[in-house]
């Protein structure tokens, strides 16, 4: 349980020993990274021990939502980490939130089922009215209200967000919403949805980024005939959906901030999202490395551990170097974010480097395991599938490179 101002889990060494014994990793195979927020990390690891490989494997096999895990994480307070104390949260720094997500992934779990509960509320916090904050944030902090659906991507527009086609038309004290979203993850496990839609037709604005607005939709109040949510089955267990709005009526007080400024509000949340996803990728990469090292040291072929061969140990050592480098960039992005700067460059770099490092580590881990890497019970193939996503979402590697080229290196816009 996360406790305000407490050093929750006693002496470090004893705890490490306990964890090592439980997870069956020998001291030799356990990489002791220098870490910040150690108390929080220990607490998350302890919680994750209750949800071992079999739990995640079963969820994956059935494409089931990890309800028990999310309930426990919510109960422990971790998902309210970033919410100010006056609204019932823990008001922690982004580096602490990153530590929570990293440890979930490092333990072999997957925070994608609930990570959005941590950061989607940022748009309400930064741009919502006092009335909206008081109405929603306490419930989000204690988990009685789930805000984990974020409807931006559409089938026709893709990455080109400002050409999205979902409209919200004002009629008296209501908006009438029509359109379609794709990849709206967790919509079936959320009470609220943050929706980006067009409120002024594109031919009536100077720039396409204008005339877009953010609505906070209370899906519990919408009749089924106006809102259809259909699951989209993907290569990993992600609870993602497509969503259809048919003359959906929402009260005008669902509008966050000013009408027409929604694109800016969505952009303002991107740094936090990139940093937190990077942390998940770092956690995955560490899991792959530890798993690969353990197997390489134990598997004997031709009368010696396969890890004795440089052909096996060098790729693992290389991914370890990649992870440590990506981790430094993540720390720098989080540090700058926590002191109130706008670390667009660092957040993008961290996300790209961490996603690349976790994919490389996934590849190496699979290769190290040979045939067993493909067996479900080793968990490598599941984590491999899960790690792939972060090459594309929430932003693809190409678009990060475009950002760096244009906004950091001052080269011409390519699209
Ligand atoms: C499992 C999953 C969960 C998701 N969850 C959410 C969610 O909760 N909410 C949400 O709104 N979205 C979500 N997304 C959407 C995700 O953010 C998008 O898939 C991602 O931004 C890429 O958009 P796209 O799929 O439309 O690809 P496209 O925009 O069609 O691009 C296809 C490919 O072309 C490349 N490309 C496009 N334009 C350029 C260019 N100018 N230069 C170079 N390369 C280019 C891209 O990098 C990409 O590799 C999710 C996606 C997935 C797969």
Structure description:
The chain is of the alpha+beta class and 415 residues long. The chain has three domains: 12-127, Acyl-CoA dehydrogenase/oxidase, N-terminal domain (Butyryl-Coa Dehydrogenase, subunit A, domain 1), CATH 1.10.540; 148-262, Butyryl-CoA Dehydrogenase, subunit A, domain 2; 267-408, Butyryl-CoA Dehydrogenase, subunit A, domain 3, CATH 1.20.140.10. The chain is 47% helix and 14% strand. It contains 14 helices and ten strands. Strands 1-4-5-8 form a four-stranded mixed β-sheet. A hairpin with a 2-residue loop joins strand 9 and strand 10 (304-305). Helix 2 (38-49) runs parallel beside helix 5. The N and C termini lie far apart (47 Å). Mean pLDDT is 93; it is low at 4-16 and 18-29. Flavin-adenine dinucleotide binds at residues 150-153, 158-159, 183-185, 234, 238, 240, 389, 392-396, 398-399, 402, 414-415.
